[in-house]
Description:
The protein is built from two helices and eight strands; from the N terminus they run E-E-E-H-E-E-E-E-H-E. It has helices at about 40-55, 100-115; strands spanning about 15, 25, 30-35, 55-60, 70-75, 80-85, 90-95, 120-125. The chain has a six-stranded antiparallel beta sheet with strand order 4-5-6-7-3-8, covered by helices on one side. The chain has a two-stranded antiparallel sheet with strand order 1-2. The longest helix has 15 residues, at about 100-115.
Amino acid sequence: MTGEPSFTIPARPRRRxxxxxxxxxxxxxxxxxxxxxxxxxxxxxxxxxRVLTDGPYRSGAxxxxxxxxxxxxxxxxxxxxxxxxxxxxxRLHVLPATGSEGLRRFYDxxxxxxxxxxxxxxxxxIAGSGHEGG
Length: 134
């Protein structure tokens, strides 16, 4: 990939509040960040934690899931998104009000902290987005 990746969000998930309680999302858009140098899930987790600690972030980890997952708020842009690690990649999950600026800022910090190149792929399974993931 040449040039800077785009963090233009092609479609946003819709938030639903079922009568049984909680919140659900219809559809998904995520940016998959793959390091050029293969890193273990543990190493990726440490890298993400370092970015979250160093950056202007408030975050919380969901500890009872089979993969690392954080809910992140960028205090500079006020963007909120989820960050997960799976299959050797860092994934930025778009929420209904997530802006491109917060995703770009996280990516820039990850690149600076990770000391390697990253490939970025946007995937969306929201009808009409034109970016069906696979």
